[in-house]
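Need tokens for this chain, all 612 residues.
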Amino acid sequence: MPDGKRYSMFEKIYQRNGSATFLQVQNKTYSYQWLQEKIKKTGGFFRDYGIKRGDRLLIALSDEAEFAGIFVAALANGITLVMLDPATKTHRAKSIMERVSPSMIIADQETLASWNVPKDFPSKIFSYQKGSVAQTGLLGKFLQKSKPLIPENDYLSLMQNTAPLGEFPLAPEKGNTAYVIFTSGTTAASKGVAITYENLTAHLSTLQNVYGITEQSILLNQLLLWHADGCIQGPLLAACSGCCCHRPFSFAIDKIPSLLDYGFAHDVSHWFVVPAMLNMIVSFSEGYEDSFNYPAFKAMISVSAHLEAPLWDKVESTFRIRVCNVYGLTETVAGSLFCGPLPDTYKKYTAGKPVDTQVRIVDSTGVDVTGEETGELLLKGPHIMSAYYGDAAATAQGFENGWLLTGDFASRDEEGFITIRGRKKNLIISGGFNIQPEEVTECLLKNEAVSEACAIGLHDEVFGEKLIAAVVLKPGADASGADIVNFCRQWLEEKKVPQKIFIIESLPKGVSGKVLLPELRIQLAQSLTAGPGISGAIGDEVLLVAAEAFQLPAGRLTISDTSQTVSGWDSLAHLTFITLLEEKFNVRFSTAEVMTLNSIKRATQLLKEKHV
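Here are the structure tokens for all 612 residues:
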């Protein structure tokens, strides 16, 4: 029998038959033997470069299989992971690096080049480039090349020459930090959520029990791996359960039929989605209503954002399945409240019940409310982090006598089911992504043309919330909304760039000078509803709509532009484009039409066919 000190939460990985599938990315399969060898090989790499248990490794990789492998391997070897989006902008990346002082950095070659890390930065830095390991065959001999032309710090080539550990590593200490994920926020206010191995072990056990995960389970999770719901409820949950995780391709509207076919063909048991993805799937599922009618299917699990009642109804009535709703924060690893799949936790339109979690709902004075009154939700449990990384002040503000202050308002009915009523904090959740409006406002104020600015979220049926902003220009400045959007793209990740910027004369303020957010929301919502007038030839009208959807000057777009040539034409912007076209021209596109709508010319053709 395995030694508990050695195996702990990674026991399933070490005991699993090596031929079993751990991960399926694109069309490539990665076995448990691959993962077992990855753990030993990565441990040898850390050994060779003097990286010890508790040291910090910062990773920013776009290769999903490599990310998943390093993520699990580093955890198994007791190394603290700091995960960043490879698209993280330079100022944010440098700020985080200075705060965590990583002993090692492994990042995409392009990412490292954009960050321009100083040569004297006290960290071992390795560049990752897929396929960089040279082929040593006849061609190499013919060219008389004895060494591959690769950077000295190329991670893959150095790993290739690393001797693995002789045995699996001992289990990490429970109190050690497993990983740190930095929240959205201004450069100064961004908080590092530090999850310990004890937190992680406890919550993985909860997730396995709640979801009914076994070695036969097949998970499908396309969420971003540098977010908790992507990495924890994907590769790590699969690895520690001895089952398989599938990531077939990046989620996109035109791939929805292929995605539904894929799940059916591969007997996916558990689907992990955010509400925005669910909205797109159900909106373009014509002809695929029976996609989940197969024996292996167990649960559709909605995470990361509030699941609106109309969407909940639409998904369940269309596919004839039960949607599970999970409430959690980065601070709670993944979840805390579960509405399904367990029968006794399911009640439609609620966040379900706490599992392995204590709950309080308190009023503004910190006293527990009575009955079904609304108050702030407080959580306590073995899975909840105990401190923000290196930030005693933020920790003190985030906890009250050991209870995590969620910043969310909630109520509890007589059966114990909890309903989330709103947010106390300013956090915007758009398409499942957390955005701190202060971070966006900070960016806007860096623009030399901007005098004042305020970013806010407005309710949106598709994305949950839509990020928009209002700016007041300095006297004499003539910047347009599109100009300011392009400026934001230099400083912010694409998902934090406002979908619309309104240039106004002044921000509504109270006597203290603070911006009156309710008044500003009403003002901008009215402007958004009014929208710009559209006239002229249909092609010109479509260009104007495209300019609004993709936040670009109309003059930069042409009728021949496609999703491959337009900056910012991703899945969410694509859905915005379709929605705006339907609203402006009072038409409805079928699922089949949406699948082909990948250019401005095609949009124009479809509208003409509808006799617009």
